[in-house]
Amino acid sequence: MYAITGITGKVGGAGARALLSAGQGVGAVVRDPDKGRYWSDLGCEVAIAEMGDAEALTRAFTDVTGVFILPPSNFDPEPGFPEARAVISAVRQALDATRPAKVVCLSTIGAQAEQWNLLTQRTLMEDALSTLAFPVTFLRPAWFMENLAWDIAQAREQDVLSCFLQPLDKAMPMVATADVGRVAAELLLQDWTGNRVVELEGPERVSQDGIAAELSKALHRPVRAEAVPRENWDAIFRAQGMRDPSPRIEMLDGFNEGWISFEGSRAAVVKGKVSLPEVIRKLVG
Fold first, then answer.
1. Angle between helices 120-129 and 82-98 (to 10 degrees)
2. Residue 155 included in any domain
3. How many CA within 13 A on the CB side of residue 17?
């Protein structure tokens, strides 16, 4: 059986369904018992655990073949990432106590970057799990295509795609969450030794201009990409409720300046199957 954290999200759910389709047993690790009922109806064993609760995670990881670690996202962390560090500590304790045969951990493109930014939370997780005494794979996906969900309303109502990724014609790696979950499941079913990094992107790299063109097709109206000036980012993010936008801004700088990128050669990056037009069609409904 494979324990899947974050199973109620898009990535974890896709991974769990792929394992179930392959005839594998799945342990659904959830915070909310009500959400666990969906997975129990599909034949999963359900364990209730917060990601910061080492004892509950230990119970969830006991007697499983492998574990998929999907750390919770925090887009507005406290300085020094104390929330992420608490989760990392609990996960590490639980894995040390249960010693599964293998672990796949969701990380991120650019986890190797030395500059601190929002994605450093994943770097810290990699650092903590890299010294475990059993095989660990760090899955580093590109920017999620589904992040465009936040942009659909503006594109539909104002014919504009406000872009923080710049320049607008720069093709960047992106990937669908369905591919991330599927690949995570495939990796769990493999055997390997030590630590390894697997980097993942979609079938093609896409620019902000290209995204606007696909939105135009899906919405049947012209949509233009418009760069948001960097000097406005802090005020915009604070107006949205963020307390400290600096880690997010550093992350965006990393993508735009190129120091958040894949560590391996482009030829070594695994390619997903789901295209941007497919994702956009689903997002626009």
1. 20
2. no
3. 14
Q: What is the CATH number of the domain that holds 60?
A: 3.40.50.720
**Predicted local confidence at residue 40, as pLDDT:** 96
| Residue 110 domain flag | yes
3-state secondary structure of 84: helix
| Residue 178 placed within a domain | yes
Helix (H, G, I), strand (E, B) or coil at 151: helix
Helix 54-61 × helix 82-98 angle, to 10°: 40
What average pLDDT score do residues 243-251 get?
98
Q: Is residue 183 part of a domain?
A: yes
Q: Is 51 helix (H, G, I), strand (E, B) or coil?
A: coil
Q: How many domains does the chain have?
A: 1
Using pLDDT thresholds of 50, 70 and 90, give the confidence band for residue 268: very high
> What number is the average pLDDT over the span 20-35?
96
Output the pLDDT for position 123: 98
The token pair at 115 is 């500059």
User: Residue 179 sits in which domain range?
Assistant: 2-144+174-202+260-273
pTM of this structure: 0.97
